[in-house]
Amino acid sequence: MRVNGLDVEPVIGLEVHVQLATRTKLWCRCPLEFGAEPNSRVCPVCLGLPGALPVLNRQAVEHAVRTAVALNCQVAGFTKWDRKSYFYPDLPKNYQISQYDLPLASGGVFEFPIDHRFARVRLIRAHLEEDAGKNVHDFPGFTGVDLNRTGTPLLEIVTEPDLHSAEECREFAVQLQRLVHYLGVSEANMQMGHMRFEPNINVIIHADGAEHRTPIVEVKNLNSFRSLHGAVAYEINRQVEAWQADGVEAATGNKSNRGWDDEREVTVPQREKEEAHDYRYFPDPDLVPLTIDAAWVAELKEHTPELPICRTERFISEYKVPPKDAPALVDDRATADLLDHAAEAGGDKATLAKHFLSFWSRRVNERGQTVAGLGVPAGHLAELATLQASRKINATAAAQVADALLGRRDAAGATTPSPAKLAEELGLLQSRDEDEIAAWVNEALAKNEKAVQDAISNPKKLQASRGFLVGQVMKLSGGQADPKIVGELIGKRLGEIAGRT
After folding, report:
1. CA dist 30 to 42, 48, 195, 395, 472, Å?
2. Rounded to an integer, what distance in angstroms lies between the CA atom of residue 80 and that of residue 82?
3. 434-447 vs 483-500: helix crossing angle, rounded to 10
4. What is the band of 477 on the pLDDT scale with cuts at 50, 70, 90?
5. Among candidate residues 153, 157, 163, the one with its CA nearest the CA of residue 176
6. How far is residue 163's CA from residue 6's CA, in Å, rounded to a whole number?
7. Which terminus of the chain is more exposed, N or C, with fewer CB under 10 A?
């Protein structure tokens, strides 16, 4: 990469906080509810009141282990809880329950497609911790503190510095969001702050036959893909310019934190970056260590579904889906499962995919649902695709049958007639009777002599004239004639007429 006339190599690691999809907090039974009245979802445990003891949320541990397994991490058989001490108004205990030297999971790797290749990012660790509260700066003259979020279960995923551009960082984040949402371990709603990114960035500058490394900067609390991309891109350029101005290089003690100003699209100084010893980590005396059964981990691994990136590649191959459209079929797991079930029920795969991306997708957008949420059984989806693939109905008729299927379900629940019966009731079944189609062809040719003459005598008008004649036959047949047979018979008849002239 060239920046300001210099060869530079960005070196970027990410810390990602993923809010886990539990009903209650990590250490107490307070419900998690976005947008609730401030300080209405708190109790003595998450407020850190004297004598209140935490109790671990098993579901949070299971979600964390499922994610670690999907990321190819080594899940620890023994882990413990540590107090990470620091003072901030939204941290009522003045410490955060986290994990330090014995994390829940370590190692692992995450691969994702970008620029027609697969990037490979190694993972250092994944550990559980509780979230802090939220400072609210909406009041004139003072800051409010909302502790509803305090104690929310987070999975912190830390990568090696294997990312080398703002584009790679954004795509890593996008694919990680797809993964955790797909697994059902997080709602991964960026607008609700379910995922936050903190890139650690510096650059290697190649100049004068030597390598110069700029000081590491951590940009805090980025909650959108746009801000992550913007902050990394800005910081790469800023660090190169700073080195050109002062020559300062990475050294012990000169790491720093910066924030992202979304309006000005710049990073701004916050404070010097703390080292581990600044947090005075020590084992939490109120919590026993956690022992994780290897057999349980193996069971979770066995039930890990096919993951989004692999499934996307398979759909492109098996269902003949354009690469740009495949994620739309994969991102909702229930819909992707339904597509596979419909194929298993005998539906033509390419036709099924076209249906999902065309008229089923339109119905979804109109109703604010997923395709799976429409409630159409896999068997009906398969039968409808088979009707079109076997040319018993055309694409337009298939969409009409789909509307009828949904209409009947809305009116009578699950007692929906089969697609074949509906196609017959609606008069949409295509005729493949060549004698019947030949009669429509002869009638269309007789009524459109000019188009016939253009097709025979003017090569430049041949294609347009034949298309017009096919349309006339389809109109005469009420759309029931098989277009392929229509085209063949029109070609045959035009040849016969040309031979007589």
Report:
1. 6, 13, 21, 52, 68
2. 7
3. 50
4. confident
5. 157
6. 19
7. C
DSSP three-state, residue 48: coil
Tens of pLDDT, residues 181-233: 999 999 999 999 999 999 999 999 999 889 999 999 999 999 999 999 999 99
For position 237, what pLDDT does the model report? 97
Task: Find tokens 């907090």 and name the residue.
Answer: 25
Contact 429, 411 (CB under 8 A): no
CA distance 18 to 405: 40
What's the first-to-final CA gap in the chain, in angstroms?
Answer: 70
Contact 164, 10 (CB under 8 A): yes
Element holding 232 (H helix, E strand): helix 225-246
d(CA 455, CA 462): 4
Q: At which residue do the structure tokens 């016939």 appear?
A: 452
Q: Where are the beta strands (DSSP E) in 131-280?
A: 134-139, 142-146, 153-159, 195-207, 210-213, 217-219, 256-261, 266-272
Nearest to 300 by CA among 308, 292, 309: 292
CB atoms within 10 A of CB 99: 23
Please choose, from the candidates 387, 381, 462, the residue with its C-alpha nearest in 3D space to the C-alpha of residue 416.
381
Classify residue 74 as left (phi > 0), alpha (psi -120 to 50) or beta.
beta
- pLDDT per residue as tens digits for the range 427-458: 888 767 778 888 888 999 999 988 888 888 88
**Statement: residue 414 has pLDDT above 80:** no
SS3 content of the chain, % helix, strand, coil (to 5): 45, 20, 35
Structural fold of domain 434-500: Arc Repressor Mutant, subunit A (1.10.10)
Sequence spans of domains, the chain = 2-291, 305-425, 434-500
- By three-state DSSP, how is residue 110 classified? strand
Q: Is 224 strand, coil or helix?
A: coil
Task: Say if CB 61 and CB 290 are below 8 A apart.
Answer: yes
Burial of 94 (0-12, 13-18, 19+ CB in 10 A): exposed
The residue-averaged pLDDT of 133-145 equals 92
Give the pLDDT confidence of 265-323 residue by residue, as tens digits.
999 998 766 677 788 999 999 999 999 999 999 999 999 999 999 999 999 999 999 99
Provide CB contacts within 8 A for 99, sequence distance 6+: 79, 80, 81, 82, 127, 128, 129
